[in-house]
Amino acid sequence: MLKSKNSSSFSLDWINQIPSSIAIIDTGFNLMSASPRWLANFQLDLDQIEGENFISLFPELSQDLSTRLKYSLDGLRDIKFKYNAKDCHYSSEDSIWHLNPWKDGYGNIIGVIIKVEPISKTEELELELNKTKLLLNNKSSVAKIGSWELDIINNSLHWTPIVNKIYGLKIDFEPTLEKAIAFYVDDSKNIIQKAVDEAINLGKPWNIKAQLKQQNGNIIWVNTIGRPKFKDGKCIRIIGTIQKVDKENQIDVQLSKLEDELNEYPLFEKIPQGLAIVDYETGRFINVNHQFLKLSGFDKPTFINKSFKKFVNSSVTGKLESLTDQLEENGAFKPVKFTFTNKLRHHLNLKVTGNLVVGKNNKKSILCTVENITTQTKLEKKLKNTISASREKNDQLLNFAHMVSHNLKTHATNFSLLLNFLNDEKGLTQRNKYMNMLFNASDNLSETIKGLREIVAVKSNVNNEKKSLNLNESVFVVEQNVAGLLKQTNGKIINEISDDTTIKALPAYLNSILTNCITNSIKYRCEEKKPIIILSVQEDKNYTTLSVEDNGLGIDLEKYGDQLFGLYKTFHRNKESRGIGLYITKNQMEAMNGKITVESTPGQGSIFRFHFNKK
């Protein structure tokens, strides 16, 4: 309680100016304050709930939320927690809660800052995994497929009742990894153990047929599939399925029944292109040739008697009605392009054409020709990128030409006129006035030339090698550089970035981008508000995204959105505005294969997101 009491001595007036949805609690889990948006989202009144135990406000979340809050008080940053609106009565929207330690000026943890954001599709898929497993359990009872999950961190194994039936075990049997592997016989036991080890250490999935000895002594064949899941480069769990199968899986029998039908295609294996024969009625593969298998990397049983839909994406399945109509009307369908992932996990661009073939007994099938156009597609993409880059360079040259012809010409004309006036003027007072005007004109010319040098510097450093940089170290340097501005304006920077966050960037560019964005947040502040700047990071497969959020003047994007990053474009009456900072920042990000996105509301603030490419 002493820490809670101390924490209350800090002024929390700034939270009323935050446009984000944020709540702050002390070490006793008591609500200290909340932003207007958070209160509006949950339809709560701060006067009624201030000082209340935060967990008691959300009793439905008590167990999971309490655990995560304790972790946050231990110093863990950016702990994510999913809020399911349907399970609670305060809000109608699902969201993600980001939990971060709240520290005083000496680095002591005095509470937790909870930031609420709309849930993204990626986060939804990840956090809904348990629901997916429940659905799998329900479906597996019909297909007699058992599902299981191995928790690497806690060394625990969980599986569905179907697995008990496959092993011939009672329902109350408590599985472990060692017990599960012990049921496999002879070489199968070594194969399964090796598959588990490779999944954990190498991230390698498996799909294996093996022999298993049930508890009653019967030996059966099973098909087991395992998929490792990683977090922060470490395998944390493996999920998979197990199904009882016949030894041959009846594929050889099906192949033998089809041999007579395939004899009517004598040149099938001699064609130097990938060929596949698909049953017209069922859409299942009847046969594929050697070139097709070579292209895919899989063996023939992988395809035979399987629906082609299993191997194509939505770009093909979405056109099925059109393809069927083409086959009926013309006996063939036009080329279809799609992406296919072969056994080596290489993404191939394929082009497929199909012709309707009528065999014995009027049996219809589709003869498909499969062509690998990956190289061609890459060349086309490279050509488009080259054309796009050329257009961009041309636009930049036009921009420079405009600046030189217009801006520098304006300076030259101004100098010429002032010199003429000075030459004609005899009075000392007026001559001094013209001299002052000439000095001002010289300063303005120097400023224009300085801006030109800065832009050229960005372009000339494009080929410099990016480095892996600790983001918080760079932020600390910039914070020191703007410390005077922050003190002068009573500004505050809230850093929610994890200490181990790294990005790939040019050091000089990163410093310039951070400095420009933070100083802009201070420069374009609302006079009646203290500037608040929130720094946070989100990760995805391709980008590390730095978000810089402020409570400043904001920008009318509907009015100025297409001019936002233009040269010499300004949107507020500020004597320090040059209209060059955002232009340079955009060029620096693009030079590093990154990008900038913006959200802004006039009078409420802006969020600039800097997407740093991980490559």
Could you walk me through the main structural features you see in this protein, from its secondary elements to its overall organization?
Keywords: Kinase, Phosphoprotein, Transferase. InterPro entries: HATPase_C_sf (IPR036890), HATPase_dom (IPR003594), His_kinase_dom (IPR005467), PAS (IPR000014), PAS-like_dom_sf (IPR035965), PAS_4 (IPR013656), PAS_fold_3 (IPR013655), Sensor_kinase/Photoreceptor (IPR052162). This is histidine kinase. It is a single chain. The protein is of the alpha+beta class and 615 residues long. It is 41% helix and 27% strand. The protein contains 21 helices and 22 strands. It has a five-stranded antiparallel beta sheet with strand order 2-1-5-4-3. β13 and β14 form a beta hairpin. The longest helix is centred in the middle third of the chain and has 51 residues. The radius of gyration is 33 Å and the shape is extended. The relative contact order is 0.05.
